[in-house]
Amino acid sequence: MDLKPFPGYERHLSGYLRDAGPAEEGPRAAPPVFRDFPEGMRTEDRVIPGGDGQEMKIRLYIPKGLPERPPVVLDIHGGGFVAGDLDTDNYRCAAIAARVPAIVAGVEYRLSGKGVHFPAPLMDCHAAWQWLCGHAEAIGADSGRMGLHGSSAGGNLAAGLALYLRDHNEQPPALAVLNCATYTPAIEETMSFQQLRQLRMGPDNKALNAEAAYLGGYDGTRPSYYAFPALSPDLGGLCPHFIIAGEYDTLRDSALDYAGRLLRSAVPTELFLAGRQGHCFTAVSHPFTDLTHDLIAAAFRREFGLLNHLSVQTG
After folding, report:
1. Contact 104, 90 (CB under 8 A)
2. Are 191 and 255 within 8 A, CB to CB?
3. pTM (2 d.p.)
4. Largest Cα–Cα distance of the chain, in whole Å?
5. Pick from 230, 227, 233: which is nearest to 243 by CA?
6. Which one of 65, 70, 159, 171 has the largest count of C-beta atoms within 10 Å of its C-beta?
């Protein structure tokens, strides 16, 4: 498939090309840690109990001029289940916090590998959600207005968490934003994977891919749908969703399929397909990324009841 990247994202997309060369020499080299926060925004790191009672860190992003008892959004970073940390989503968290406005809480869940695998990372995210539900008032937020955002592997964890909260009758998010998320271990079956074979999305060896690392290896049994939400036989009763996909992302069609199933299950769903964009394009500082963050913030504001004052003028 002939790729014509959105102007300004060429370097980002080329980083996923299979012939891009070693990551440390080519365009996949890790970007510098984003710390250019909006004026007046502060961050606060806290240590809370994790999924198995171990300590884990969360980071609060608190913009200037928040209204009294603002909403709170839990952000789950990406990294293919085996990489990433709180710094990974500094840019996204700051953008969402400032635009909603809301307090955004990033969670440093345990990464897969070295004896850690599903469900440990998901249970860490669940522990962070529970902590926010119980401590929202203490951090100055409104426990009745809570949202969820995740990118790539973090989007997978956010989708799995939404299902887990539904099934256990726990407080649901007002909105779950799934940004270029991973939904299924069988991405080779999608047309987007076949069209975009020149893009790098893990090794060809299934036993070495990120999904296998998250599961702790394949054992011939069907994985839990909390691990891969597309395996859920029923999506009914979920919270509202906002699905983001890139046209040049090999995960594109699995996102479209998931959005379609949500709509057929009567789940309020918004779908944004970003033309000429690759996987997790919102990592790039660019006017189109700003537009995408504006759309995410508008969706959160709608579900948080922050747009109820608007009226339509006719004439």
Report:
1. no
2. no
3. 0.95
4. 65
5. 230
6. 159
Q: What's the rounded Cα separation, in Å, for the pair 60 and 190?
A: 37
Omega before 101 within 30 of 0, i.e. cis? yes
Query: Is 50 exceeded by the pLDDT of residue 23?
Result: no
Backbone angles phi, psi at 151, to 5 degrees: -120, 135
Q: Can you tell me the distance from the alpha carbon of 243 to that of 296, in angstroms, rounded to the nearest whole number?
A: 10
- In the structure encoding, which two tokens stand for residue 210, read together? 């990120």
The residue with tokens 């695998």 is 117
Q: pLDDT for 296-307, tens place per residue? A: 999 999 999 999
Q: Supply the DSSP symbol for 229.
A: G
Q: Which two tokens stand for residue 277?
A: 């964009």
Contact 74, 107 (CB under 8 A): yes
Nearest to 160 by CA among 201, 115, 114, 121: 121
Euclidean distance between CA atoms 24 and 304, whole angstroms: 42
